[in-house]
Fold:
Amino acid sequence: GQVMKDGVTYDRLNTAAQIEIAVAIAKLRAKDLGIICVDGVECLDSENFAEFERQIQGSGLQAFITRVCDGDFRTVIK
Structure:
């Protein structure tokens, strides 16, 4: 199958809904470990990255992300 929400396929959902589903799936797959690695976060604009931060912070997961930025290595989500 396909991943759907309210009868709409994943690729037709808005980015916030896609992030919500992706975090929910990651949480299920992480099980008791509670750690995930997320690649491609650099494609999110600031609004959608903020939504990603909210979803991760409320999930109980610890996330290691890859993101393109200027400057030195830093912690992005606290």
